[in-house]
From TrEMBL, chain B:
Signal sequence region: none
Keyword Endoplasmic reticulum annotated: no
Basic and acidic residues biased stretches: 494-504
Domain Histidine kinase positions: 563-765
Key words of the record: Kinase, Phosphoprotein, Transferase, Two-component regulatory system
Keyword hit for Metal-binding: no
InterPro entries the UniProt entry points to: Bact_Chemotaxis_CheA, CheA-like_dim, CheA-like_homodim_sf, CheW-like_dom_sf, CheW-lke_dom, HATPase_C_sf, HATPase_dom, His_kinase_dom
Record-given protein name: Chemotaxis protein CheA
């Protein structure tokens, strides 16, 4: 099962397909303090994303896959304040 | 290619043909419901068929066409010329896609945007008010569609607002700047998926993630989210903003199924130079910037770079100033234009976000961005730097061509060709004004019969190009100028698009549609042939068992007769299979005449007769090109403008009649117009001017001979060379093409009344039946179809009337000609033992003529080969044939001889 509900946490596993969106919407309506765990997730169908966005769900764990995480981070408020991306860079020396 | 696809292509061509026919038919009779229904059905079926394959571009255009026709059918929309134009354009596009599928097996991604544009233009008709003036309609929807489909930048600095770009993290923007510096083109892509896309199994997020050259992307909501209870999870409300560093073609390829859902904006790299952080206004920034601006003015860039580095070490990395300094350093490192650096410094001084849209800096933006994607990518004429190079290369080659153009006879042709190439290249390079210089040089060159003026003109262009190339800034700056010009040029002239014109060669259709009955007949004949073959071993057994030679000979002859009959029937059956109606060639002319006459502003009615006349496939195919030339000539030179016609007391609409009919073993095709005709005096003058004949000859030749000069190589009377005709390669090509299939062309013309061209072609080019005759000890062949009968006349019944011989045959006087005399042989005709002359009665026009020969032999089937080489010029012979015994038989052309 790509989508697992444990108490008030929804676990996204591997690829979460379009058909889960309805289930997710139902669950979110019933669970006001829902948190999301994307940990082992590799792809989320956008139907799920918009449901999560509309519910303004909070995210407990970002996907391990960094590219997906980069896409998802700006979409949701996060309980942990540490994830705000701060541009770090090295200075470039003149050649 | 799989059989299904092959069949689809063959059917698609038929559908396209019938769609075009119906569209034109409806133009003259817009209320023809039956034609309308057929048209709709054809488009509908074609769309359905195309859906079987992976051709989204084709299906999309056809679908839009189908919807439009449905609206017309239900009378929600009026049929108009503009609508027909748009549909014909769309069908041309589909035809072009078919060609591409046939040659490459797939459709290139570059067509996606054109397809979307066409579909949008078609749909525009439905949304636009049907009351709007039909004449004004075509331009507006097309423009709108283009704007919608590609979001064409009307200025080169059309970037998304800075706020949007600020959403991109600075390091990604810096990386993008580097990519642009390395030569990549940057695009800002807004992908707004269809609301229903989830139901179609699409995953827009995945598509966006997989975009090649993706530097950054984000997902946004299109509208505020409703409460969860009202949310429809499957109505897509997302939008994807992507920053891409790839080519336009790759974008088209990746998003080929959803081109209408994209808004693509070329992004100048400078737009990304936006410092972020807090504390914009700072005293140290202002001081630094003032000093740095001074350094910039004095050109001490190293000092500037050093100062920036030091300042950056002092500044806190989170602050706005630090971000601005990092950008400054990057601009300096990538040798950005000075104007850009100055603007950034000024913004540091004022503590404001640099506004790259500011007037005057747009140029700086263009210069600073290495090879930015200027111009409208949808117009093929928009030149990328590479294409620019190619254009200059072509120009350089023209120089070589002109240097070699020394043969006087072909010189005008060479000059015209070179001038046309020059003009086209200049137009493509965005310098249409310079084409006038080419024209002047061409006229001078033609007047002096020398390539020098044109070559000099070309050299000047190349020299200018050298100067331009030395300053790449100017070259890139010239590029954006080229695109709007090219766009208006191609739109303004209503130039047919998709590299396809109605008069182009039909794609060599390699399939032949054959009536089932013809194939059944062949099958039966093969059966008979097998039986006849099986009889031969019996004959061999009889010969071995010792039958008499005479008996054997009789039986072999009998068997020969059987096989002969079968071979003849098979030949006939095969020829039947190869027969094509001339409509195969004629069918393109309604469209051709329609397009060209509208372009020329003439009114023309085309009359086609005898389309059912059949001839061999090769002959019909060989006919296509010459006919196109002729009809184009008639349209361009023959027919006058409506005003001229009315002034000359003719109907405003010109008339071109295409007639085909069969006469004996020839197909006669006539192209007759009621235009101004050909003026022999004019032809004489032109021919002398062009050095085709000298002045003495011009006076000596008859009017008809003068008119025939249009068939001379390099002859053209058009004052102005257009892309229709007038290149001086028309009529001689026509004559040569026809002669290749042993056809002939004759021209009749009367000034003010019209011109008529008659083409005569053989019905088929395979086996001929000839009768072998003997004269002065030699054997000759005579084509069987002109032989009426063979008779033996007693010498006493031949009378001499004046100088010629005649005889009375069955109560009619038949003129007699001895073959020996016709061939210039001295010997008198021989008689047989009974003192009778062998006379071959042949058809000559509508009369019969007797040809006196020495003796008759058998008839036989031969494959007639036309004489070639030096023998080609020999009159009186239609060709040679190889006989069963290995000898060569010369076949006489009695029509020429008598």
């Amino acid at each position: 099962m790509a989508l697992q509900f444990v108490d008030s946490c929804a676990h996204f596993v591997d690829t979460v397909g379009v058909e889960e969106a309805e289930v997710l919407l139902d669950w979110l309506q019933k669970t006001p303090d829902a948190v999301i765990d994307f940990g082992p997730c590799t792809h989320v169908h956008p139907a799920n994303l918009q449901v999560l966005m509309a519910a303004n769900a909070s995210v407990r764990a970002w996907p391990a896959e960094t590219r997906l995480a980069d896409w998802l981070r700006p979409l949701f408020p996060t309980p942990e304040p540490t994830v705000a991306p701060a541009p770090k860079r090295k200075r470039r020396k003149a050649a | 290619m799989n059989p299904l696809l092959t069949q689809f292509l063959s059917e698609a061509r038929d559908f396209l043909q019938s769609i075009a026919e119906k569209l034109m038919q409806l133009e003259s009779a817009p209320n023809d419901n039956e034609a309308m229904n057929e048209l709709f059905r054809a488009v509908h079926t074609l769309k359905g068929n195309s859906g079987l394959f992976d051709f989204p571009e084709m299906t999309r255009v056809l679908h839009a066409g189908e919807d439009l026709l449905d609206a017309v059918r239900e009378e929600r929309l009026a049929y108009s010329r503009a609508l027909a134009d748009q549909l014909l354009d769309a069908m041309d596009f589909v035809g072009m896609l078919c060609d591409e599928i046939e040659s490459r097996g797939a459709i290139g991604a570059q067509h996606a945007s054109v397809g979307a544009e066409l579909a949008a233009a078609l749909r525009e008709f439905m949304t636009s008010d049907s009351d709007s003036a039909p004449d004004a309609a075509p331009a507006a929807p097309a423009d709108l569609a283009r704007a919608v489909a590609s979001n064409t930048p009307d200025s080169i600095f059309l970037a998304p607002p800075a706020e949007e770009l600020l959403a991109i993290p600075e390091d990604i923007r810096r990386a993008a700047w580097q990519r642009a510096h390395d030569g990549a083109s940057l695009y800002w892509l807004c992908y707004t998926p269809d609301e229903q896309c989830f139901f179609q199994g699409e995953d827009p997020f995945f598509l966006a993630q997989q975009t090649p050259g993706l530097l950054w992307g984000r997902i946004t909501a299109r509208e505020a989210w409703p409460p969860l209870a009202e949310l429809d999870a499957y109505r897509c409300l997302l939008r994807f903003d992507l920053l891409l560093a790839i080519t336009r073609a790759e974008i088209d390829q990746h998003f080929r199924y959803v081109p209408e859902q994209l808004t693509l904006t070329p992004l100048p790299a400078l737009a990304l130079v936006l410092p972020v952080g807090d504390g914009k206004d700072s005293a140290e920034g202002e001081d630094f910037a003032s000093a740095a601006l001074h350094q910039l003015e004095t050109g001490s860039l190293d000092a500037l770079r050093h100062a920036t580095t030091v300042m950056l070490e002092l500044a806190s990395p989170q602050r706005w100033l630090a971000s601005a300094l990092r950008w400054l350093l990057l601009l300096l490192d990538t040798h950005a234009a000075r104007g850009a650096v100055r603007l950034l410094l000024e913004s540091i001084r004022d503590g404001a976000t640099p506004d790259w849209r500011q007037s005057g800096t747009a140029d700086a933006a263009a210069q600073a961005t290495p090879a930015p994607p200027h111009g409208d990518p949808d117009t093929p004429a928009a030149l990328l730097p590479r294409a620019n190079e190619v254009a200059w290369e072509i120009l350089a080659w023209q120089g070589e061509v002109l240097a070699q153009a020394s043969r006087v006879a072909a010189l005008p042709g060479h000059l015209h060709a070179a001038a046309t190439t020059l003009r086209n290249c200049l137009r493509a390079l965005g310098r249409p004004d310079d084409t006038r210089r080419v024209d002047e040089a061409l006229n001078e060159a033609l007047a002096t019969s020398s390539a020098a003026p044109l070559a000099a003109c070309l050299q000047r262009f190349l020299a200018e190009a050298g100067a331009t190339a030395a300053a790449p800034v100017a070259a890139t700056a010239a590029a954006p100028a080229s695109s709007p010009v090219a766009t208006t040029a191609s739109d303004g002239e209503g130039e047919p698009r998709f590299g396809r014109r109605a008069d182009d060669l039909l794609p060599g259709s390699r399939t032949l549609k054959v009536d089932q009955a013809k194939i059944d007949r062949l099958m039966n004949l093969i059966g008979e042939m097998v039986v006849a073959k099986n009889a031969l071993p019996y004959l061999a057994a009889r010969a071995e068992s010792g039958s008499s030679a005479r008996e054997m000979a009789r039986e072999i002859k009998a068997q020969h007769a059987v096989i002969n009959r079968i071979a003849e029937e098979m030949h006939d059956a095969i020829m039947q299979v190869r027969m094509l109606p001339v409509s195969f060639v004629f069918q393109r002319f309604p469209r051709l005449v329609r397009d060209i006459s509208r372009k020329l502003g003439k009114e023309v009615s085309l009359v086609v007769e005898g389309e059912d006349t059949e001839a061999d496939k090769n002959v019909i195919e060989a006919l296509a090109d010459p006919l196109v030339h002729i009809v184009r000539n008639s349209l361009d030179h023959g027919l006058e403008n409506p005003q001229e016609r009315i002034a000359a007391g003719k109907a405003a609409a010109g008339r071109i009649a295409l007639t085909a009919r069969q006469e004996a073993d020839r197909v006669l095709i006539e192209v007759r117009d009621d235009g101004r005709g050909i003026d022999p005096a004019h032809i004489r003058r032109k021919a002398v001017e062009k050095g085709i004949i000298d002045a003495d000859t011009a006076h000596r030749i008859s009017d008809q001979e003068a008119i025939n000069l249009v068939f001379a190589a390099g002859f053209s009377t058009a004052e102005q060379v257009s892309d229709l005709s007038g290149r001086g390669v028309g009529m001689d090509v026509v004559r040569d093409a026809l002669e290749k299939v042993s056809g002939t062309v004759t021209l009749e013309s009367e000034v003010g009344v019209g011109t008529c061209l008659r083409l005569s072609l053989p019905l088929s080019m395979a086996v001929n039946q000839v009768m072998v005759i003997e004269s002065d000890g030699q054997a000759f062949g005579v084509a069987m179809d002109c032989v009426v009968e063979t008779v033996r006349l007693p010498r006493s019944s031949v009378h001499t009337i004046k100088d010629s011989l005649a005889a009375v045959l069955r109560g009619r006087i038949v003129p007699l000609r001895p073959l020996n005399t016709l061939l210039g042989i001295e010997a008198p005709p021989l008689c047989n033992e009974a003192d009778e002359l062998a006379v071959l009665i042949v058809r000559h026009g509508s009369d019969n003529v007797g040809v006196i020969v020495d003796d008759f032999r058998q008839t036989c089937d031969v494959i007639l080969k036309p004489l070639d080489g030096i023998l080609d010029a020999l009159p009186g012979y239609s060709g040679s044939a190889l006989m069963g015994d290995g000898s060569v038989l010369l076949v006489l052309n009695l029509k020429e001889l008598i």
